[in-house]
Amino acid sequence: MQTFGCWVTSRPISGGPVRKSWIEDVDEIARETEKRRLSGRIHILGMGNIGTFVAHSLARGTSPPPITLLLHNTDLYRHWLATKGCLSISSNGLDDIRTGFDINVLHDDTWYSLPYWDGSRPRELPSNSDTASEKEIEEQVTRSEQDDEKIECLIVTVKAPQTVRALKSVSHRLTPESTVLFLQNGMGIIDEVNEKVFPHPYERPNYMLGIISHGLFRQVPFKVAHAGIGTTILSPVPSRALTAVEKQDDDWAPSTKYLLRTLTLTAPLVAVAETPTALLQYQLEKLAMNAVINPLTVLMDCENGELLYNYPITRAMRLLLIEISTVICSLPELQGVPGVQNRFAADRLRHMAVQLAQKTAENTSSMLQDVRRGQQTEVEYINGYIIRRGEELGIKCAVNYLIKQLVIAKSDMVTQRQAGAVPFDLSGLEDED
């Protein structure tokens, strides 16, 4: 069991004697923690493709856990009212609609609770939510109860650049007994969260990481198309304080074990639990693919399949992957792991990238979508991660650095164009006779 950042095991940890008073204090805290029963409630932060899919999947079970959706502004709550409190997943032309979710809405740095269920019947939703003014929506929210309930299990699905800001809004509701699952693209997010949100190790929640490969496309807010079945790979993140002993299953916090068990038993997610080292390798494979396909589609302004059968682009892919392969194969956390050199060889990664581009030939990458919408991209957590790890190892990643700068420049250029555009409203003009 993890208690305030310290791992309590049945075996002595090497490194010298420990004061008896400290042991007694930890034992007392552990006993108090065991007395607390988990409520089973799962909070979800980020209602994009992944957040909507995960919440919907959890609600499909015969005995679903209580679920709270964390909406980060009142405008998103307006969309929620317009859907009559429903999440919808479209598959093969059929819509599967789920209800019964509790809602927290953030307004002026305060979370307000708007539970969907009122006794045995759904609470009444405003019939004029589509035409209600922003002030009316805000007044409805602030009339609700403030919610400072402690969060036991939190699933974070916001984009990587938004993670720190999003977690800061709920950090006061997380405890060292809580578990936070990050289901996102990119890597290096936990290090940034520790630095900017939870700088004190003993106050940090437990962490889990996951990667999801389902084909998901947003149609409208809270409605997502499920275009292809994939998998969800999950793993708890060991505490860095544990260095002298191998972590056992019994050492995970109760909230971690509960969340992992619940997700792996949720059939639509097709979720499996892996060891931290195995998950890291899956993450790095996905990162390598994203570091090639995403930025090149941004710079070429093209769909994934258009990267194929183009010799100059193929050369650029090779140069990118040589750097990526060199960095990954040199990572200290992978040293001694069998098969790493072959798994992350540049030629194998190139073959995987070509296969992925063929499979998703008609898709527009998420990074290109972000650029077109004038939103911040995840390039700092994809190519930027390779660059940072390369610098730690003394490896210069000049091609990745150039690609990253060009993506940022392209994004800034599009944003400036959109900001300089003057919208014209011609609705009040009458045609001349």
Structure overview:
This protein has 433 residues and is an alpha/beta fold. It folds into two domains: 42-274, Rossmann fold, CATH 3.40.50; 279-417, N-(1-d-carboxylethyl)-l-norvaline Dehydrogenase, domain 2. The chain is 40% helix and 19% strand. The chain has 14 helices and 18 strands. The chain has helices spanning 20-35, 49-59, 74-82, 134-142, 163-168, 189-196, 254-264, 276-300, 311-330, 340-343, 346-359, 366-372, 383-392, 398-420; strands at residues 2-3, 6-7, 42-45, 67-71, 87-91, 94-98, 102-107, 110-114, 117-118, 121-122, 145-146, 151-156, 174-183, 206-212, 215-220, 223-228, 232-236, 271-273. The protein has a ten-stranded mixed sheet with strand order 11-8-7-4-3-12-13-14-17-18, sandwiched between helices. A four-stranded mixed sheet has the order 6-5-16-15, covered by helices on one side. Helix 8 crosses helix 12 (366-372). The relative contact order is 0.10.
